[in-house]
């Protein structure tokens, strides 16, 4: 698997643990997802 950046904090995580939302939005946790919106 490849690493992708969190759309909020910009840290890189394995793609398998990301919360995927829309084609270009990936979040490492619910906190980043909530703050982004």
Can you put this structure into words, describing what you see?
- The structure is a single chain.
- With 37 residues, this protein is α+β, with helices and mostly antiparallel strands.
- It has one domain (3-36).
- 19% of the residues lie in helices and 32% in strands.
- The chain has a two-stranded antiparallel sheet with strand order 1-2. Strands 3-4 form a two-stranded antiparallel sheet.
- The radius of gyration is 9 Å and the shape is globular.
- The relative contact order is 0.30.
- The model has no long low-confidence stretch (mean pLDDT 97).
How many beta strands in the DSSP annotation? 4
| Tertiary shape | globular
Mean pLDDT, as a whole number? 97
Q: Residue ranges: pLDDT <50 for 5 or more in a row?
A: none
Order of helices and strands: EEEEH
Q: Counting H and I runs of at least 4 residues, what is the number of helices?
A: 1
- The neighbouring-strand order within the major sheet is 1-2
Helix content range: 10-25%
Rg computed from alpha carbons, rounded to a whole number of angstroms: 9 Å
Give the CA-CA distance, first to last residue.
Answer: 27 Å
Structural domain count: 1
Quick rundown:
By secondary structure, the chain is an alpha+beta fold. The chain has 1 helix and 4 strands. It starts with a strand and ends with a helix.
Structure keywords:
two-stranded antiparallel sheet, 37 residues, two-stranded antiparallel ribbon, alpha+beta, single chain
Please give the structural blueprint.
Blueprint: E1 3-5, E2 12-14, E3 19-21, E4 25-27, H1 30-36
